[in-house]
Amino acid sequence: MFDKLALLGFGEGGWGLALLQGAGITISIALATLPFGLLLGLLVALGKRSENVVSRWLATVYTTVFRGVPELLTLYIIYFGVQILLQRFWEWSGLPGSFSMPPFVAGMVALGVVLSAFSSEVWVGALNSIQKGQREAAAALGLSKAQAFRFIVFPQLIRVALPGLGNNWMVLLKETSLVSVITLPDIMFITTRANVATKEPFLFFGAAMLIYFCFSLISAWGIGRLERRSSRGFAAFGGATR
Amino acid sequence: MRWCEYPGHWVGSEVFQNYGCRMFSGLWVTFELVAISVSLGFALALGLAIARLYGPRWAQGAINGYTTFFRGTPLLCQLFLVYYGLGQFRIFWQDIGLWWLFREPFYCALLTFTVNTAAYQAEILRGAIQSIPRGQFEGALALGLHRWATLRHVVMPQAMILALRPLGNELIVMIKSSAIASLVTLFDLMGATRLAFARSFDLTIYLYAALIYLVLVEIIRRVWDRLELRLTRHMALR
After folding, report:
1. I need a surface site. Which of A71, A169, B53, B175 has the fewest CB within 10 A?
2. Record: contact A192-B76, CB cut-off 8 A
3. Mean pLDDT value across residues A146-158
4. Domain A2-237 carries which CATH code?
5. CB contact under 8 A, B72 and A212
6. CA–CA distance from B205 to each of A235, B18, B67, B76 (Å)?
7. Cα(B131)–Cα(B122) distance, rounded to whole angstroms?
8. Domain ranges of chain B
9. A16 or B235, which is more confident?
10. Cα A2 from chain centroid?
């Protein structure tokens, strides 16, 4: 059994470096998706609370669809669908060559759209928790709506939303494993290839599990720190740790 | 024409009509997979949650490790580890007569999903039991109820109401996650759809599959809302 461990090493015939690169891809796609998905989620949340009926309806349909369809299916639809649409556009516009969708972008968009649908719920909850008086006071001080959001609402929003958003991040981190099916060389893709080459599935998928588990533990620790930091002004009220 | 070809016929999609029967039998596989694994997972989770709270210290530690590990790693990775990884030890499984389990992708998916959802459900139930006020336990004790009777008749009925919504969410998550079973050659709804796409190169088939999943999830959401209303009708809040 132990002689097999050399397969995970960095020496001759070892998959250590490839696994490390795969871990790098996993982290990069998760980190690239995060700001995109969270910002889009915030926009959707603002749409849900808007006074405009159409934007409220659109935001509700958007979240219902992307929370109800399997992530794998969303990924396929975006990867193949955007590919076909852009290919048609390419031919129509008469550009030379052909278009091919980079898997990284497809994965980022698909995961980001799903993340935005889920995070919008968290944002809505957090936005509801901010009292009306905060906005009114900001208006009384002569701040514009945008300024009020930037300086008054947002800092308070983050503190309330952080536990939910942290949860979204943990889900996202695990969902990145799906991008391996659209040939993005993340951890799962590398281990699947290593399995085909070496016929040692238990060793490699076990190693992949441990890598993901490490990422999860580090994330949980980091989120805990962030939560404590963002609620440090509230310690006086008996500690706002939840 | 068979019944399963009609939806495709009605919407005027040739692919959906041709692969309608495969997709609906795939939907049945998805249904079986989710129904069995979520129910088995619930039974398992009930025991785990109680042992996690009231069991001996070593059991508490072990269960804590189990839930943290399975909630911290992707389901896809767990499925591959079971299907490919445990399938590697063929001789061993044949010796102890369990090879039938690890040979079939369906049983592998079932095992993985059960173990995975049990971890999530155990955490949901633990949280629900823990949020029952202390006074409930003390009151039961004052009435002379045994520990098990307290759990069975006082704590669990209240905890289940608290756990209802997160358990419904977990059911929906499992329906969506079950799509990855198609990656271990299982022809569930997603698997049948992938086959249809691979043979026809018609992307609209994915949209029809998305619609079926969406309807399924919406139905469960509505049923769960009703269920919650009915189960909490004795509470003053509503």
Report:
1. B53
2. no
3. 88
4. 1.10.3720.10
5. yes
6. 54, 11, 37, 24
7. 14
8. 3-231
9. A16
10. 37
ipTM of the complex: 0.91
Cα B199 to Cα A6, A74, B18: the distances in Å are 41, 20, 11
CATH number of B3-231: 1.10.3720.10
User: Residue A234 gets which letter from DSSP?
Assistant: G
A–B: how many Cβ contacts below 8 A? 109
CA distance A226 to A159: 9
Given CB atoms, is A216 within the 8 Å cutoff of chain B? yes
| Structure-block tokens of residue B131 | 């949020």
B133-158 pLDDT, tens digit per residue, is 999 999 999 999 998 999 999 999 99
- Which of B76, B195, B213, B224 would you mutate first to test chain A, the one with the most A CBs within 10 A? B76
* Cα separation, B206 vs A149, whole angstroms: 40
**Domain coordinates of chain A in residue numbers?**
2-237
Instruction: Work out the minimum CA distance from B146 to partner chain A, whole angstroms.
Output: 32
As given in the structure block, the two tokens for residue A229 are: 């930091």
Among candidates A73, A77, A188 on the partner chain, residue whose Cβ is nearest the Cβ of B77: A188
What pLDDT sits at residue A93?
A: 83
Strands (E), A10-154: none
Cα B158 to Cα A133: distance, rounded to the nearest angstrom: 37
Within 8 A of B72 by CB-CB distance, chain A residues are 170, 212-213, 216-217, 220
Residue with tokens 């139930």: B125
B220: closest chain A residue by CA: A68
What is the predicted pLDDT for the residue at A238?
45
For residue A20, give every residue at least 6 positions away whose Cβ sits within 8 Å of its Cβ, in sequence order, or none: none
